[in-house]
Amino acid sequence: MLGKYLTIDGKSFPNPLPSSTHSMDAVENVSQSEAGTDLIVFTRAEKNTWNMNFNLTYHSKEVLKAICKKPKVTMIYMGNTYTVRVRNFSERLVEGSEWLQAAPNGLYEVSVKVTEY
Questions:
Q1: How many helices (H) and strands (E) does the chain have?
Q2: What is the pLDDT, as a whole number, of residue 3?
Q3: Predicted confidence (pLDDT) at residue 59 exceeds the cutoff of 80
Q4: Full DSSP string of 78-90
Q5: CATH numbers and ranges of domains, the chain
Q6: What would the mean pLDDT of 90-110 be, rounded to a whole number?
Q7: Res 33: pLDDT
Q8: Contact (CB, 8 A) for 74 and 83
Q9: pLDDT at 42 over 80
Q10: Residue 71 phi/psi, 5° resolution?
């Protein structure tokens, strides 16, 4: 996928690392009737959730961190457009990467959870 990028809130990021995961979950509401039977109402059949991992420069990491504070954003991934929430931001400096000339502040392993709105 060289030359292709993930776009979140109009900002381009490299495609997620292969260790990223994707799942599609049913959205349902469960309640009980007076007789004690379970009532399940499917609100939506498929809701996308991605756990994305990236290697980012300091600047890109800070841009993604700011996006995580927004209630919802638009994401373009694999040619499809989604309205999503980006949460659960975590970062870790890649050991020894502060010596790279292309990334003077180091490379960071960043992970986020992206949930379709």
A1: 1, 7
A2: 46
A3: yes
A4: TTEEEEEEEEEEE
A5: 5-116 (2.40.30)
A6: 78
A7: 78
A8: yes
A9: no
A10: -65, -35
